[in-house]
Amino acid sequence: MPTPPRAFWGSPRSYFFPPPPPPRPGGPPPPGPRGPRTWLATLPLLTFTGLCFGIPLGAMAYGAVTRTDPASGATQVTGEHLARSLQGPYLGSLIGSVQLSALTALVGGVLGVVIAQAVVTSRSAGLRSAALTASGVLANFGGVPLAFAFIATVGISGVVTQLADLTSLGWNLYSFTGLTVVYLYFLIPLMVLVIAPALDGLRPQWREAAQSSGATGWQFWRHVGLPVLAPSLLGGFVLLFGTAFAAHATAAALVGGSVPLVTLKIADALSGNVLTGQENVALALGLDMILIAGLVMAVYLPLQRRSARWLR
What we know:
The protein is mainly alpha-helical. The protein has 13 helices and two strands; from the N terminus they run ααββααααααααααα. A two-stranded antiparallel ribbon has the order 1-2. The longest helix is centred in the middle third of the chain and has 34 residues, at about 90-120.
């Protein structure tokens, strides 16, 4: 007697995604890598990656761990720059950037998912097209123009600030809170673009199967919807985190040095606005940013492969 299927609230993959049947004897072999041809096909991409990313990364790492002796002119290996990048105001800027990026990525991710779900479930094709088009435009609207738009609107002398008397309510655009609101302006549309295809991948048959099994809407999202979307949600969070973490022009034009951010510290160190001869410390700060981004990506990639296997 065949074994009955597992209950709905079991593993979503075991219930909705049975394992593929074994290959038939004498049938074609399963697709897979074919020796050197695979490496030859990826050679242009590897070359481009090495030239555009590997060389700058190597130069940054070399400058972060070396210094030039002023007396002899010899190059020496040292960890002084990396140590200084993790002390005092430099460490504060790293922590400030991580806090700002995590907060904006979390809030932008939640609001973006809510908006994307409303757009995906809408029956109006015009609304969907308009929302996705607007998201594509707003997600790429940043830098100095965005800062100027917010200054003219909700700055100290902005139109909305004067009409609504936001100053008396404690509103300050040139603060951590104000910068968070500005970042959400382009992070929320970016999350809509990222998560909308994943929401489209939730097949209606899955919800119908859940309803026929007696599951409620909450049980469907808890045991099927969220497990399937979890890698995509985390991927969106990683993308938003990286976008906010690397943003510079908007923060530089809006808050200057009043909010400690690592990108602003790197710019100050390279230009010598505060101290001269800090170029290697700036390279060390850049290397710290790459390490933080690498740690975040190390969590995201395994889950992304799992999500792609479920949604195919």
